[in-house]
Amino acid sequence: MKLFLDSAHLQEIKKAVSWVIIDGVTTNPSLIKKAVLAMRESGERIDMDGYIKKILAEVGRMRPVSLEVAGLTADEMVEQGKILYDKFDQVTGNVAIKIPVCTVNTSGEGDPFDGIMAINRLSDEKIPVNATLIFTPEQALLAAKAGADYVSPFAGRVDDRIRQKTGMKFEKTDYFPATGIFDESSTDSLITDHELNSGVDLVARIVEIFSIYEVECEVIAASIRNATQARDCAEAGADIATVPFSVLESMVMHPGTRDGIDAFTNDLENDYTALFSGEV
Ligand code: G3P
What we know:
By secondary structure, this protein is of the alpha/beta class. It has one domain (2-252): Alpha-Beta Barrel (TIM Barrel), CATH 3.20.20. It has twelve helices and ten strands. The chain has helices spanning 10-18, 29-41, 48-59, 74-92, 114-124, 137-146, 155-166, 199-212, 227-235, 245-252, 255-266, 270-274; strands at 2-6, 24-26, 65-68, 95-100, 129-134, 150-153, 182-183, 186-190, 218-221, 240-243. An eight-stranded parallel β-barrel has the order 1-2-3-4-5-6-9-10, surrounded by six helices. Strands 7-8 form a two-stranded antiparallel ribbon. Strand 4, helix 5 and strand 5 form a beta-alpha-beta unit. Helix 1 packs parallel to helix 3, helix 4 (74-92) runs parallel beside helix 5 (114-124) and helix 7 (155-166) packs across helix 8. The protein is globular and about 70 Å long. The protein starts with a strand and ends in a 6-residue tail after the last helix. SN-glycerol-3-phosphate (G3P) binds at residues 6, 26, 28, 31, 154, 156-157, 222-223, 242. Residues 6, 26, 28, 31, 154, 156-157, 222-223, 242 line the site of SN-glycerol-3-phosphate (G3P).
């Protein structure tokens, strides 16, 4: 499984790329906002154009970086997708354009298929597209049929929706079992969202469908909230998991590893450390 960093924070990106296990970066308007607020707080001036170019240069030629459009109609999304691609892909040739699979809002405004049409038109122009805000396998299938190179199922947000149905209290980073959770009143009935048991179930089903029909579209497990969920996505066969910086850090840490480091350090024999001192 490839690993992307889900961040627009330049320092996080620099650090994660230096750790050599990052294969790409995904951003979205919320992540850009977070990065801009952090910059403002530290008194830095914001030049968005220059900032994005720095991100792209930092990530480098071989690793894709997803940049999202802001518009909600097919025409706006295509126009903005082209602007982003023309402006930024020339930096290191690594830009993919993120298009929401469906732009109908909570008030019901918008055309349900504008996202799909925008994906298709950009894909026809050979612009790599990452279809985002995927909450069902059927949305993923439609996006892939329209020509998306990537689909991004929002695993953590599916889990949020299921937990919200129960009224249970939870932290965003709490682990949610890939197999789902049962209704308190019956151990037979799982609480689901659109017949999905969990966000990982969503990822697994998309992987399964794409495999049956040999769909050439990579599945980016997104909205990953903790290391165990990243593991579950790997087991589900996701091509890529895009993880926040904090999740990436937690993936390498374990108390047993820490204890082992202490034990090995305490047990070092002088004769053994002398091997490294050049004194022998
Ligand atoms: O990649 C999508 C991601 O940024 C959304 O994550 O945690 O806000 O659901 P989250």
